[in-house]
Design a protein that fits this description.
Blueprint lengths: L3 H11 L4 E2 L2 H4 L16 E3 L4 H14 L3 E4 L16 E4 L6 E5 L4 E5 L4 H9 L17 H7 L6 H4 L6 E7 L5 E5 L11 H5 L8 E8 L6 E9 L2 H13 L6 E6 H11 L9 E9 L1 H18 L2 E4 L3 H12 L1 H6 L4 E4 L9 H15 L2 E7 L4 E8 L4 H20 L15 H23 L17
Parallel strand pairs: 2-4, 3-4
Antiparallel strand pairs: 1-2, 5-6, 6-9, 7-8, 7-9, 10-12, 10-13, 11-12, 11-15, 14-16, 15-16
Length: 462
């Protein structure tokens, strides 16, 4: 429970319109997009400035109150669920694009700017912000940074980390840290910016971000390739990369996902196919023409059918259909368990074979899609959390899958983060030494253990 004194202090500092403590106002803040998790906070604040975040954190620090940062709540590992109650600091009202600097090719934004809004704003000036997480229509920039979000263009253009130049961060005790800048080269001291990226709100709360921008590609070509065997699709991805073709997008969907997406968007996807690859090459027109020709040769030799997008509108329609994969799958059953297994690309075909084996072993309905070019797959179990036996089988499916993924040199998360859901898997991946080093970093930034407690690793143990 929050004390009356602390609640009044929050109202005095942030304004009554930016503080809520009634249960009906808190219910939605107890969830993110992770199934099966719900914990109510005691209070939520909606700061509109860095100083407002600072004031809220100073009050929480004095009260020894857990603090959970939140954006739009699109996370898939429980990162923004207040598992120990306390205060949620929701940053959605800090949503201004502060600057688009065309001389330095940067943009500076507040934490709550929606990813697609930034993309559109810089596009109007002839610039390009490449990171494009699947939730880009609603996810916020600070959330992207805290999870180091990827996206469909990650294969060629990289992930959020690759574009972050500077951060303004409030530490648990209210200290404001500014790290990085607009200089392209900067090796002055520890790279605290990089420590913060992907830290999932466990070290500090980001309030302002400067990202780099690039010129947009001049041309692009989009292909759809259909396969009779999902393992052949996986092997084809490896062959494309081995041919030194780096598409901007190379996405995969298995048969279950194809059918769910077609039910949802009705664009004529062939339901009988075992898999499809959505591939886009972009860049200078001459390079695009050369890569498209080489790509088409490989696809024609491997795929059952190959199609080229008719025009830019058709290409956008195909990409939009891929972005609906999770929504389409979620319509099928009451509960959707979406995971984030990532393997070396040479292991993709074997990973699909393993997913098929485990699906049969545990008698589950599974749809798999993902960023094939990155080796980043999202095997999604369609289930019902009210069925205890089905949920037990679903978790056993993932336990066995991740054991094999790690044996192949993969990782338990390519872009969704660890949060609450994957702490045990992370410990298996990085071992006791890795956990201990991360705990020391956590304790150095957050000695009281108040900031997003229970996420990634637990602090304080010595």
């Amino acid at each position: 429970m929050i004390s009356k004194k602390a609640l009044q202090l929050l109202i005095d500092k942030l304004g009554a319109q930016n503080v809520a403590s009634e249960k009906e106002d808190l219910l939605v803040l107890g969830y993110d997009s992770t199934p099966g998790l719900h914990h109510l906070p005691d209070v939520v604040v909606y700061p509109t400035t860095t100083e407002g975040v600072q004031a809220a954190m100073e009050i929480a620090y004095e009260e020894n109150m857990p603090i959970t940062p939140r954006g739009s709540g699109t996370g898939l590992s429980g990162g923004s669920v207040p598992v120990q109650g306390g205060m949620v600091i929701c940053l959605n009202r800090m949503n201004k694009i502060l600057e688009i600097d065309e001389e330095n090719l940067t943009a500076t934004v507040e934490a709550g700017v929606v990813t697609l809004d930034l993309f559109n704003a810089v596009a109007e000036k002839g610039l390009f912000y490449p990171p494009d997480p699947g939730s880009q229509k609603i996810s916020t920039l600070a959330g992207n940074v805290m999870e180091d979000a990827g996206g469909l263009r990650g294969l060629k253009y990289g992930v959020t980390r690759d574009y972050v130049m500077a951060l303004k961060v409030v530490l648990p005790d209210g200290t404001i840290l500014e790290t990085g800048g607009k200089s392209v080269k900067d090796v002055a001291g520890y790279s605290l910016k990089d420590v913060m990226i992907g830290s999932e709100g466990t070290l500090g709360i980001i309030t302002e971000i400067t990202v780099s921008l690039i010129p947009p590609p001049q041309d692009k070509r989009t292909f759809l390739a259909y396969f009779d065997d999902v393992r052949v699709a996986g092997a084809t991805v490896s062959e494309i990369i081995a041919a030194k073709i780096i598409p901007s997008t190379m996405e995969i969907m298995d048969k279950a996902t194809i059918n769910c997406v077609e039910d949802y968007v009705k664009i004529g996807l062939p339901r009988e196919m075992a898999a499809l690859l959505l591939i886009e090459v972009d860049g200078h027109p001459a390079v695009v023409a050369e890569e498209a020709e080489a790509l088409e040769r490989i696809l024609q030799a491997k795929a059952a059918e190959v199609q080229s997008a008719r025009d830019t509108e058709h290409a956008a329609e195909l990409a939009a259909a891929r972005r609906t994969a999770l929504s389409a799958l979620a319509r099928v059953s009451p509960t959707t368990l979406l995971e984030d297994a990532t393997v070396p690309r040479s292991r993709l075909a074997e990973t699909f074979a393993e997913i098929e084996r485990l699906t049969e072993k545990y008698q589950l309905k599974v749809g798999t899609f993902g960023h094939a070019g990155d080796g980043n797959l999202h095997p999604t179990v369609l289930c019902d959390e009210r069925d205890a036996d089905e949920m037990k089988r679903a978790h056993a499916f993932y336990d066995e899958l991740y054991e094999q993924v790690l044996a192949w040199g993969g990782t338990v998360s390519g872009e969704h983060g660890i949060g609450v859901a994957k702490k045990d898997f992370l410990a298996l991946q990085i071992g006791p030494g890795g956990v201990d080093v991360m705990r020391r970093i956590k304790n150095a930034f957050d000695p009281k253990g108040l900031l997003n407690p229970g996420k990634i690793i637990d602090g304080k143990q010595q």
